[in-house]
Fold Xaa-Pro aminopeptidase.
Amino acid sequence: MFRNRYAQRRHALGLRIGEGCIALIPGNTTRLRNRDVEYPFKQDSDFFYLTGWQEHDALLLIKGGEKPCSILFYQKNNKSTELFAGKSIGPKAAVRIFGFDEAYGLTSADLLYKKVRSITDHAQVVACTSAHTGPFASAVQGLERNGRGHDIKYLIGEMRLIKDAHEIDIMRRACTVSGAAHRDILFLVKPGMYEYEVEAELSRAFRRAGGDPLHAYPSIVASGKNACTLHYTRNSAQLKDGELLLIDAGCELEGYASDITRTFPVSGLWNKPQRTLYEIVLRAQTEAIKCAKVGISVGYLDEVARKFIAEGLLRVGLITAKDPDDAVLRDLDRRFFPHGTSHWLGLDVHDVGDYAWNKETARAERFLSEGMILTVEPGLYVREAKGAKEYKDIGIRIEDDILITRSGPVTLSHLAPKDPDEIESMMQCGML
Ligand code: GLY
Ligand code: MN
Ligand code: MN
């Protein structure tokens, strides 16, 4: 019945917004980096999810109702822009390939505005997603009526949260590429290398395997105390014997993100304090992953991880409390584990979808269901270590990407080793 998955998604959204409502979903525009050089283009994720269209400056219009109708407006190259950007796809091909009901290649924002107005003027409700800049997107600003923009974003977020078989296949492959890259790095790392050399190896692995030009996020390659800076991306330091290396890196494949973190010793051998803290994080992570089942709330995973982290912190003397529950209640663990345990993963690394956040309990109450993909990523970052100095400046995070299925959690990123003995023996092979 549907020409492709994008047409099916537009149809589903059209049914949900209903008769009398029009949704306007702008794609992204380009941005100049300097003079005439552009930043690499990345399509808006909602727009891509509903169209599959990868060109800049386009607009999707969906008329809601029992028989939804979708129209694509896009920027058509003229004779002079064609020379640099190539020929634009024709409207007939856009309809045939992408399954729109109508498509219009336009050369100016004025034309777009007139065409869109002629349709939206008859609608009771006009809802836009985000107001991106750019000539095509700004031409539709001000057309929104009855403030339903948030609803549309919410509805698309809920659709994107549950991955279909095609998306799961892509994300499985993305995690395979990234997991293998993390694994292969273990054979390469040696004291004296620079963080950026490791970053370059990851990029090479991602691109050679067909990953998108932009990775899912800037790679974090953080040695020693740099790992205590959560979003360290300078990647400029030299790796030193005796330090740990934290790598948080994931390719993007066919638009979908992977997000993996591993931490291991630069020398290939753990020292005692490093291994002690590593095992605390690993335990917290494996226990939380075990709980990632249909019907369990995403907040519960965080509770489990925090409890095991707090238990470890108490044991090594980094905090003092009656017991782990008391430590968590007083947020003592937050000094060393200052971020959440999980986030949704999809087209965006921090993907859309409601967490059902309860302000009173400060808990994400969304229940896990089949087809969701989320990260589980506890960490420990010891910036100060009163009374337990041997742990100072150690930063550890372990992060996997988990698919929720009826038969339990599936670790899509399993190729990246995390067992501390396995890491040691693989690294020893690399040092030979
Ligand atoms: N790489 C970003 C994150 O782990 O959330
Ligand atoms: Mn993450
Ligand atoms: Mn990450």
